[in-house]
Write the structure tokens for this entry.
Amino acid sequence: QVQLVESGGGSVQTGASLRLSCTVSARSGSVGTMAWFRQVPGREREFVAAISWNMYSGNPRYAESVRGRFTISGDTAKTTLYLQMNFLKPVDTAVYYCGASLGSLSNTYVSQHRYDYWGQGTQVTVSS
């Protein structure tokens, strides 16, 4: 069983920064990949970033829309996933979710169906 709890969302203006956190409660070694997705009303959940979460953690992957502005990372104890978001834009407004996959990072990391567990989400609102 994996439990995920996001925090750190809020309302900011264009160009500001936010750091999202996702607390990961899981048996050691059970999670292979962690990711951030986002969703706006009426649209499917959209991939943002993913990272390997096993003993070879790292190898971050990003959506083209956030590359160079967002950074995904995790603590060495693998208890917290982060998303540092810089130079935020109104189009970044969404509910952000962290997801956990029991499988290793693979070519299907952009699909929400690849992930087995989800947090409850945290709202990020960027105003112009």
